Amino acid sequence: MSTYTTVIIDDEPLAIDVLVHYIARFPEFELVKTFTNAIEAFSYLNEQQVDLVFTDIAMPKISGTELVRLHQNTTQFVMVSSYTDYAIESFELNVVDYLLKPVSFERFTATINRFKASTKQSKATTTVPPSFFIKEGDEFIKVFVDDIDYIEGMKDYAKIVCGKNYYLALKTLKAIEEKLHPFDFVRIHKSFIIPLKKISQYNPKCVLINTHEIPVGSNYRSLIKKYLEANKL
C-alpha cells in the first residue's frame, strides 16, 4: 500500500484539529507536519517533498494561493476556506480540490479519493519538461521553460534570453506573462519577466540571474522581498 505524506496549514488551530482527525482515518496518509505560520510552512515545503498539503487561504503574511504559486516542488494542494470567493482563483492553480469550512467527513473523503485517482494517473504518464515553440522566419524552435533566464519586452516583440542565446517572439510581454505564470515567472519591471527560482542575488535596484543583471521596478519590490523572505535561512 502506498503511503502519502501530508501537511496541514491553517492559522486556526481548531480547523487543523478537524483535518487531523479526518486524516487519521486513512492509514495510507502520514501527517508529517501542521503549521499555523504560513511562512514557516512555505520554507518547509521548499526543502521537503510532501505529497499533499491542505492549506487555508486567508492567512497573515502569505496567503494560501500565493504559497501555491511560489512553491518549487511537485506537491499537490487542497485549498480550505470559509469563503467561496477564492474558488475560481484556486482552480486556476490546478489544485486537487476546494473545501469549504466547516468541512464534513463525507466531503473530505471525496477529496482524498480525487487525489488518489490523480496520483495514479500521473504515475502512468511520462513527465515531459514544459516547453513551447518560437517561430523565426519559416522555422519553429523549441524553447524549454527551464532554460529561460529572463524575458524583455520590446514593444510588440519579446526577447527571450536563455544563457548566451536569445530568441525574438512576436508576442507582447503581457501575453507571455500569462503563459508562463504557472511556472513561477513574474514581472519585476514594466519591461522584464523572470523565473523566481533562478534569482541568485537581489538588491533594491536589480536581481542577478546567472550573469544577467535585471532591473527591479519600484512597484514590484514587495513581491520579490516576500519570495526571498519566505526562502531565507
Folded structure, characterized:
This protein is α/β, with parallel strands linked by helices and 233 residues long. It folds into two domains: 4-123, Response regulator (Rossmann fold, 3-Layer(aba) Sandwich), CATH 3.40.50; 131-230, LytTr DNA-binding domain (OB fold (Dihydrolipoamide Acetyltransferase, E2P), Beta Barrel), CATH 2.40.50. Helix content is 30%, strand content 33%. It contains seven helices and 15 strands. It has helices spanning 13-23, 38-47, 64-70, 87-92, 105-123, 173-180, 221-230; strands at residues 4-9, 29-35, 52-56, 76-81, 97-100, 131-136, 139-144, 150-154, 157-162, 165-169, 185-189, 192-195, 201-203, 206-209, 212-215. The strands form four sheets. It has a five-stranded parallel β-sheet with strand order 2-1-3-4-5, sandwiched between helices. It has a five-stranded antiparallel β-sheet with strand order 10-9-8-12-11, with helices on both faces. The two termini are 36 Å apart. The mean pLDDT is 88.
Task: Chart the SSEs and their pairings.
Blueprint lengths: L3 E6 L3 H11 L5 E7 L2 H10 L4 E5 L7 H7 L5 E6 L5 H6 L4 E4 L4 H19 L7 E6 L2 E6 L5 E5 L2 E6 L2 E5 L3 H8 L4 E5 L2 E4 L5 E3 L2 E4 L2 E4 L5 H10 L3
Parallel strand pairs: 1-2, 1-3, 3-4, 4-5
Antiparallel strand pairs: 6-7, 8-9, 8-12, 9-10, 11-12, 13-14, 14-15
